[in-house]
Batch of 2 targets.
Target 1
Amino acid sequence: MIRNNWAITEVQNLYNTSLLELIYRAATVHREYNDTAEVQVCTLLSIKTGGCPEDCAYCPQAARYHTNVDVHALLQKEQVVEYAAKAKAAGSTRFCMGAAWREVRDNKDFDRVLEMVTAVNEIGMEVCCTLGMLTDSQAKKLADAGLYAYNHNLDTSAEYYNEIITTRTYDDRLQTLDNVRKAGVTVCCGGIIGLGETHSDRIKMLHTLATLPEHPESVPINALVRIKGTPLENNPKVDIWDMVRMIATARILMPKTMVRLSAGRTDMSVAEQALCFMAGANSIFGGDKLLTTPNPSFEEDNLMFDLLGLKPREAFKNEKEMAEEWKA
Ligand code: SAM
Ligand code: DTB
Ligand code: SF4
């Protein structure tokens, strides 16, 4: 049963379940709702990099920190489509374009992004964008252009948010998510662990996600990538068990959601990633770059898939299954 009325104490009890029992329960839910042999491979591209006015303490692209990021203006549509087609040929079925913007502005750059969305949709990939805050009319325009998903992370709990970002509020985030929903675009919304938050903050974030009016179709769980020059550069490395615990709890709370093992895989062994899949993760980012930081190559991941008996998930699977049910 899909529930949106989880009590915070229920989330807390799940999260604090002894680890092997938690993994077992998450694996059971995962098996019931999803094909556990399938993992979706998604690819990211930073279409506009660096120079961002926001102060997100983790981010290599915030202009105010001195990081080594390669700043560039908005790419051309042709460059983006070429990159997407290569990712598709390598087995990726979802393509996410990221821009280091605080919010979308109604200008020529946005028009170009709309064209990119249409072009990538036409090659048969699930198109996702992450462009910062959106108004409802901008969300509508993206939907009309063929956008399948919009990524907008809550990152952490409402209480801890101000420690990480001061240039916008948690409510701003929730408002954009609502605009995305209303436009009929699927929601991709998750968080980062390793920001210095407590277990209670993680529990609260999972509770917020699992009690939204509809669960996000996609929940990325990122391990902080520590970036030199940012305020969080010296944070301790995320413990794999914390990652597994987050994924397992998310899986139990949101059985049908795609739970994405997102940033942080370069620091994880195949055995550690296997635990994440066991605990319910059913997607990764593939290709040797995330937005600005390294990620395992397609070749490395293919070897991992062969070893673990996993296969890449096709694009638009939910829609195909719904169409089949309609026919029956
Ligand atoms: N500027 C837009 C925004 O913030 O919504 C979109 C791009 S932003 C880079 C997308 C997401 O990447 C952030 O919400 C954050 O969750 C994630 N991210 C950024 N830097 C990260 C890091 N160093 N480690 C892990 N995740 C990170
Ligand atoms: C998400 O939750 N993680 C991705 C995607 N959504 C946009 C981004 C991870 C970025 C990691 C740091 C970087 O490469 O710049
Ligand atoms: Fe800008 Fe997004 Fe990075 Fe925050 S996470 S500094 S909004 S690019």
Note: The chain has one domain: 18-323.
Target 2
Amino acid sequence: MTAQLNPRGDVAVLVPAAGAGVRLGPGAPKALRPLAGEPLLVHAVRRIAAAPSVHTVVVAAPAADVDSVQAMLAPVAPVIVVPGGAERQASVAAALAAVPAGPEIVLVHDAARALTPPALIESVAAAVRSGHDAVIPVLPVVDTIKEVGAGELVLATADRSALRAVQTPQGFRRAVLTAAHATAGDPLTDDAGLVEKQGVPVVCVPGSEYALKVTRPFDLALAEHLLSAGQAG
Ligand code: C5P
């Protein structure tokens, strides 16, 4: 079966969606939890498919749910579904291995960022296309961030003006991401971290409030509100 969106597109989007979602409370794997009556993953894939540069989407699903996720997404967009791994990094590596020849830009996008606007997907891809090897969408940090140690004792206060909150999609030249995963060590929480370890410059572009990661019950309530208020596309 062919799983292409735009055959002239130059972007593959990898969607790690194999997490348990423990912080959301007991229930189905996070990507399959309902948001306004549809799984988070359906919302995410619908927005990815609406980005015109996207050639291929590869979803890393919980191993037990590969067939049901394939069936669930078939009416939304043509996608490749692979079993994810125990860590996010392993899920991304499994999805990367399934990208067919063609796309030279690879975006990695959390299923949990279900309301990410297609325009953000396009702007990250455009920054890679313009010559950057690695691109991350970021927002300024509004809270003061402190490093704490044992006993919740404060160790240090970071300079907030130099901090950014990092979102997905993170975009890479395909060869750069492939090389980073081939030599990956301990699992990291994002892919730009792997690429940084290779000494590759990572550039920031403006993120979007709508690309919030649905992680805790409050995030789910906020996402429901944004959708019902017609504020999320
Ligand atoms: O756990 P965290 O919030 O960092 O997860 C971010 C994304 O990575 C989620 O979309 C989740 O489904 C995915 N993930 C995965 N495989 C894992 C753990 C997380 O695909 N083993």
Note: Helices lie at 40-49, 66-73, 88-97, 118-129, 174-182, 191-197, 217-228.
